[in-house]
């Protein structure tokens, strides 16, 4: 099998490509604007990488959609600070560029594996979010945070419609706060503060001994999923035994790993302070509260809780997440300490 991964250097892309190359005989064709997370892949003769931008290298992409069996367009902006500050860039990349790839899959009859997002459920009030039943609830237009959710939701709907009217073979998957090594670049430079997702944000603050900032009190909850669990599920989806996953949407998350952002801050601080690599620190981050309008800007609105139903993934795919929250946080922290400590010391 030949798999095309656009955005192969990203958090999901690099980890997935490495697993495919180590566990299967499949070939991976990948494009990305960078290759700094691809050490585990670049030496393999089944890994074919081109450095480039999906907005520019259209011919390469069309040729490889034609050549490959499974197409995974993983290029997207996925940080809430950018949704608020640069909503048009989010729309252009996450929606417009990806729509072009979806259309190529339709044109060449290829199987599309599309990364939807937990964010499409928005402020849904269901206790657990169900792929086929839960309503998708977004805030007003002036709250620009929702442009990412709305872009992804419309693509989900367009993909579904292509499946319904033109026979597109697709599977959409919705990661719920996946964390792990190589999540985001750390903001070791204070000017970049506020531009990554919460776990990397907190680790950056801890490494700089700057305050960890809880937005609006930090009582909002998320279910954090370890990357290896997510990748294990994606491997089964790619394999698509008996074509069972065509036309399906799957949440991929760990409902047992629910925590408030405040719990997360305290856990990460405890693990950081107790780690031998941080013995030389004389001052550790304090944990403070900030208002969301000061942290993100006026266009931000939060999601108070977000628990995935993984009934479908359990029953249809036979998948179960295994890594508990503390282990997931320790492994993530360990990676960043290993790879960045020298830069800070
Ligand atoms: C994320 C992003 O939209 C995407 O990466 C992705 O599609 C999706 O969720 C997912 O991974 O499931 P969110 O969970 O809101 O959205 O993003 P984070 O930046 O990780 O923030 C989580 C929570 O921590 C939010 O309530 C935020 O306000 C809070 N936060 C963030 C803080 O309290 N302090 C910070 O320094 C950063």
Automatic annotation (TrEMBL):
Annotated TM spans: none
Ranges of residues in domain NAD-dependent epimerase/dehydratase: 3-253
Pfam family, one: Epimerase
PANTHER family: BIFUNCTIONAL POLYMYXIN RESISTANCE PROTEIN ARNA, UDP-D-APIOSE_UDP-D-XYLOSE SYNTHASE 2
UniProt protein name: Bifunctional UDP-4-keto-pentose/UDP-xylose synthase
